[in-house]
Design brief:
Distance between the termini: 45 Å
Shape: globular
Largest sheet: 7 strands, antiparallel
Number of strands: 15
Radius of gyration: 17 Å
Number of helices: 3
Structural class: mainly beta
Strand order of the largest sheet: 7-6-3-4-5-9-8
Length: 288
Amino acid sequence: MRKKKFAALSLALIAILTCPRLGGPSLALMSAEAVDESNVFANVGSIMVWRDANNPLGLPGGLAGQVTAVLIHRKTLLTAGHFAARAERELPPWVRVVVSFAPNALDESTWIDLSRDVGTCMAHPSFPRPCTPQSCPFDDADGQFEPGVSDVGLCFLEKPVRGIRPARLASRSLDDDRIPGTRMVVVGYGTTAPAPGGPADTSLYDGLRRWGTSTVDQVVDQNWVTFNRDPVGICYGDSGAPTFFRGRVVAVASDGALDCISADNRARVDSKEVRRWITSQIGRRFSF
């Protein structure tokens, strides 16, 4: 089966506001047939950051970048911590952040706004702060996971999502000794050709949701699991892309290294501590 590259720009909100050229880890090698035209993964969405051309920083308008996320509650998205850490403050009026759960996220009729309140997103408390474009874990794309750090974040929606069943988190699935070598599904959005040696060009973003499989390499600890890239691996813009095992989310994409070949690190969401944090934050923010 012919393999095809796809990528999606991994973002952080402050970088969007201050830097004309953005980057981060996330890409996968997918077959052309892996486009989710049948909308099988309806609860996986693309978070897109749109910048008004009339902004005080003089930056170009349009799509500034996007990450992948998965709906886990009617008003809550699970994504990468290195995106969420930079969207923990109130959004400026010239930035609009939306999510689409459509097979083609560029269909504007499907866009749902993220909350504009203080705390649009939040990263796991273990994530280092401040997180700036010049110094933020996983944005250097060096393929090294950070011990003791959970690259997991939540983003909140302005209105509840209707008609889409939220994904469920797995419960300690990765702690089974037989897990290494197990094939799992990863789902993400992105362009098909990242720029050589650097971030993908947002003008090439096709908005399509794609999926593929890869095998577990090593369960490192309670925060990290690494995958073999066979045939799929993460790289530019799959940040936050969910990994499914037996229909439940066990991890989200974090770092694929600068070359998108030498590493595939994903942040666990099945561990007890991370699940407890996710549940407590949703409970504090919303009444079920």
